[in-house]
Amino acid sequence: AKAAGRSCWCFFSFELHQQTIERQSLINDLRQALPHNELFLVYQPIVEMQDGRIRKFEALLRWRHPRRGMITPDIFIPIAEESGLISEIGDYVFKESIRQLADWRKRFGEHLIMSINISPYQLSAPDKHMSDWFEFLHAQGVPGAAVSLEITENMLMHHTEVVSNQLLAFRDEGINVALDDFGTGYSALSYLNRLDIDFIKIDRSFVSELAEERMEKDLCEAIITMAHKLKLKVIAEGIETPAQAAILAKFGCDLGQGYLYAKPLLTEGAEALLRAQDTT
Ligand code: C2E
Ligand code: CA
Ligand code: CA
Ligand code: CA
């Protein structure tokens, strides 16, 4: 029994050791990812629930690793945050997606909006890159109102003076703020008004159960009703079936996002959708 215990211990410690090496090597690789052009953005349409037309795109980051293949953001964003690389990566995401938006607004219409995920780490300390974002917007001819920043609920929990001041500075430029993954964290409703949030995004976990579970139905309806009372718009994420879309539309949900409409797309794929919708 003792021998077995020991071999167990060795096994776990070996695994842990491997994980640490693994992690360190990913951090090193991530440092090279931007200069080596391994990071790129895909864009997922967000549509009006009423008529299905594309109103926004959410920019989502991808990493094409030279040896490991595609690595999902759920893996590398936390690594970027802990290693401090998030500031530079976040700056790339902002500028690249705004450049794309500027082009699309010229070619497909000024109604288009870009939604960009912001890590709490980018807001919780002064970020040297953020200070030239407003100038960058002006240079690209993109008004603040054409930009949404998605922040997660938990960030507001730990929100400090710095975070709320930063958010206010964005608001002064007309930039919208969306509360991401709504319902999964410690929802503190008072923050919604205090920080002048514009959109809430109902988390996929609620939407996916929508057609089967009474509780999720009631929850979604309650969230939408409450949001509208507070003059917030609602985006439902992770819509995969017509049944889910129908229920959300019935509750008055404003915007929808999910595989039912489109997966995250490369530039060409997104443009094909925009062109198709132009002719209808
Ligand atoms: P998120 O902000 O909640 O993004 C939505 C995620 O749901 C995306 O995963 C998207 O591909 C996925 N999704 C969209 N529609 C559906 C659907 O109908 N069904 C299912 N099953 N999934 C759907 P993705 O692209 O893997 O991103 C994961 C997370 O990584 C994001 O969650 C976001 O928190 C983070 N992330 C992605 N890009 C960035 C970025 O540029 N900066 C920061 N800070 N975080 C990012
Ligand atoms: Ca998001
Ligand atoms: Ca989300
Ligand atoms: Ca999510």
UniProtKB/TrEMBL annotation:
The chain holds residues 512 to 791 of 801 of the full protein. This is Phytochrome-like protein cph2. It comes from Marinomonas aquimarina. Residues 23-278 form the EAL domain.
